[in-house]
Amino acid sequence: MKLKIKLSLLFLMMFLVFMISIGIYLKIIFAAHLPIGSPLQIPQYVGLLLPICAIACIIFSILIIYIRFSIEKPIQLLNARLEAVNIEHPLSPLARKSNDEIGVLYKHFNNMEERLQLANKEQIDMIAAIAHDLKTPLTSINGFAELLSVHKDLSETERQEYYELIQKKSRYMAELINDFSSFTKEKLELESMSTKPVDVLKLFKDIAQEYEYELGGLCYEFICHHSFTGNMLLMANETMIRRVFGNLFSNAVRYGGKNELKVYLTGYRQGNYAFFQIEDNGIGVPDKDIPSLFLKFFTVDQARQIQNEGMGLGLASCKSIIEHHGGKIIAYHSAYGGLGIKFSLPLVI
Questions:
Q1: Could you tell me if 133 and 155 are in contact, meaning their C-beta atoms sit under 8 angstroms apart?
Q2: Closest CA to 191 of 316, 293, 323, 298
Q3: Tens-place pLDDT, residues 234-280
Q4: Could you tell me which residue ranges the Histidine kinase domain spans (predicted)?
């Protein structure tokens, strides 16, 4: 039975119960005020009952109309929209001006559609990225193999060079597949992630010491400062948080694009969150690409991706880890000239 029929029957029953109750009440009142033995005055009784009946009809009619247009019709529209959902050809968002429960439901539905479209886009991008990243070295391998098979008169030195190039491209393909496998494995690990109290100050100092040595060995400058105290704790999976730092420092080195690169690490508390910033003075990222940096398989420049042997999964991995810890991560233009990444983690209160 449809909702409009149920509501109509419900209001009809309520109306009948209301009128019967009023009728019994009036009958009792008349009987109490009439002298004993006097007959009940039917016209007077009906004369009082009819206006009450008319007013009740008006009230119930207004309620039915209100529910029809405020609840039933919006639900019908939402139901029709659910049947018409099309990820490939998205429709315009559902519009509702009111902020009641139906309005909130419409907003949640619009957000759900956006997430579905984003997931579909990421899936398409994933297939395109894997196909592109594997096609490029495969083309090179096929070319070198064809040269070796056709040109029998190549010198041993030339043959060795082609063999080495084939091996290099094969290793690159293996690394791409390994990166993708690690990313999918990490997604599964996040679902069953265990956390424990982590001292924020100790974590910051350990990270700073580790990457100061690593960046120094690459002849890059590392600068850090913080305002953490010794009584701050995070509920976190320390291994995964260290993985976030590793990805961010690796990105700064890979894509900084400067010989005299400087990397800055900053830590501070704001409210009930610990904030960490990693910035560099490199070439940065174009404005149009900043909102897309955390999408899976997104790279600013395909040529840079091939040159630096990356699949565009590092920042997507960081986003997944931070959000599973209840924090947020953003990218921005650093005051030092390059890219800045800031993420937050909730403190134990």
A1: no
A2: 323
A3: 999 998 899 899 889 988 888 787 778 999 999 999 999 999 999 99
A4: 129-349
